[in-house]
């Protein structure tokens, strides 16, 4: 009974400009086209192809990764000798993005093809393929090579911000001549590689990541093709497809000219909340650590810092002196008992004290960040203590001052509303209790920060044939 079946037709062609991938990661690459499928009605759908080529197809859920053709794959259709066309039959749901990948049984085959989709309703089809840059020419002559190993003492990071404990090694790549270069690995492990421009931050593996033109299946030896520019520092990060894997590896690089490979490791500390990679999520505002991190020159005195850093230091001290004078005058003013006959005066006296504590904690926080960045020999226990305690205390004072100002507004509103019936003694009594209870309420709302705030450390050492440089940096990054 086909009366309720709706058919959708899609026609296209595979050309030499089409994208390429290896469907089995063990054979030569074939041209393919990725087609996004959006379903309007859930049900059973049938996919059939018609072509002069022997076609092969797979369907994926949410995302298709040509470097990992098994990831997210729901079903596949293998076109053998007896059946030259793909045939898929599976249940699809609405509100889910599907990707149909059409390729050929043999490599480097091009031609026209048509896809016929039958089901309870029509579907939307969209070509989401991009031109394959694996066709970019580059010299295949090996110009440089590098061999090393990942072991239990190697540094670790979260490569995909999902799993942790990926052992990795960073290699500095110095390019003499601009052009396309190929980086290939050979190892008994399933290696994975990324290229970064200028610097690599293991706590943010997506920062400075250079878009690669092509990479092979992640459970085999990787091959990267990217355009590298002379005078620019690139960082090659060699890791594994799965966590907790160690072993030897070999890197061969080919291109228009020789390049130098200098291994180095990093030694940095970072203060953050929660698990690694969680601070990539967007939040409201930025922390003082984020603002100052890139402005401070390590292992230099304040006189050798940038003009912007000096302006920040001077502004902070001016704010501290101004806030100190304002707080002292406010405290002296509200010491007068006549001004504290109602709760409003008590709130303002307490607010004067918290304002002094807030500007003091801000100044302490500023100089703590500056000094721990400038003097990298400070013990980690000191850095860890400041990481855990200073910012939560600063937030406590800041929130307490804001709540006290809100209490002032509420008390004045009640005074205006009740007029002569306003009970001054009751207002004083309530104000004292609120001032006593409020710090505990605020602290309970931010108690997770000192508990989950951690200090993350990794080392930095540059090794090459002519120089050895040891360097330690401290920077803080919060979620």
UniProtKB/TrEMBL annotation:
Q: Which UniProt keywords apply?
A: Membrane, Transmembrane, Transmembrane helix
Segments passing through the bilayer = 313-334, 346-370, 429-447
Question: Quick check: keyword Transmembrane helix in the entry?
Answer: yes
Q: Tell me the protein's name.
A: Uncharacterized protein
Please name the source species: Adineta steineri
């Amino acid at each position: 009974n086909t009366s309720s079946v709706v058919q959708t037709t899609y026609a296209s062609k595979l050309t030499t400009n089409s994208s390429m991938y290896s469907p089995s990661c063990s054979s030569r690459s074939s041209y393919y086209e990725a087609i996004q499928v959006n379903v309007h009605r859930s049900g059973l759908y049938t996919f059939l192809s018609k072509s002069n080529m022997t076609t092969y197809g797979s369907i994926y859920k949410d995302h298709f990764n040509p470097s990992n053709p098994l990831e997210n794959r729901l079903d596949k259709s293998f076109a053998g000798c007896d059946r030259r066309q793909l045939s898929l039959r599976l249940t699809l749901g609405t509100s889910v993005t599907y990707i149909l990948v059409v390729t050929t049984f043999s490599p480097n085959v091009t031609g026209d093809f048509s896809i016929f989709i039958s089901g309870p309703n029509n579907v939307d089809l969209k070509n989401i393929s991009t031109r394959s840059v694996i066709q970019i020419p580059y010299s295949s002559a090996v110009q440089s090579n590098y061999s090393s190993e990942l072991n239990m003492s190697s540094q670790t990071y979260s490569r995909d911000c999902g799993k942790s404990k990926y052992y990795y090694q960073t290699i500095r790549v110095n390019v003499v001549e601009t052009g396309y270069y190929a980086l290939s690995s050979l190892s008994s492990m399933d290696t994975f590689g990324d290229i970064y421009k200028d610097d690599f931050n293991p706590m943010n593996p997506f920062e400075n990541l250079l878009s690669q033109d092509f990479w092979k299946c992640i459970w085999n030896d990787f091959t990267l093709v990217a355009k590298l520019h002379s005078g620019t520092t690139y960082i090659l990060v060699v890791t594994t497809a799965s966590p907790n894997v160690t072993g030897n590896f070999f890197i061969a690089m080919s291109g228009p000219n020789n390049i130098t490979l200098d291994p180095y490791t990093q030694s940095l500390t970072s203060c953050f909340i929660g698990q690694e990679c969680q601070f990539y999520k967007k939040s409201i505002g930025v922390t003082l650590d984020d603002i100052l991190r890139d402005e401070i020159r390590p292992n230099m005195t304040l006189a050798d810092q940038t003009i912007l850093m000096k302006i920040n230091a001077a502004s902070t001290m001016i704010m501290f002196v101004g806030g100190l004078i304002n707080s002292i005058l406010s405290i002296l003013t509200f010491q007068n008992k006549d001004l504290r006959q109602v709760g409003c005066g008590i709130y303002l006296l307490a607010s004067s004290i918290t304002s002094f504590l807030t500007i003091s904690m801000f100044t302490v926080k500023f100089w703590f960040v500056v000094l721990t960045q400038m003097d990298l020999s400070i013990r980690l226990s000191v850095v860890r203590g400041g990481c855990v305690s200073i910012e939560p205390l600063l937030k406590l004072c800041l929130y307490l001052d804001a709540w006290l100002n809100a209490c002032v507004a509420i008390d004045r509103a009640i005074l205006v509303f009740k007029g002569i019936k306003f009970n001054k003694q009751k207002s004083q009594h309530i104000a004292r209790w609120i001032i006593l209870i409020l710090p505990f309420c605020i602290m309970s709302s931010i108690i997770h920060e000192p508990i989950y705030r951690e200090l993350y450390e990794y080392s930095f050492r540059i090794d090459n044939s002519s120089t050895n440089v040891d360097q330690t940096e401290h920077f803080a990054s919060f979620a």
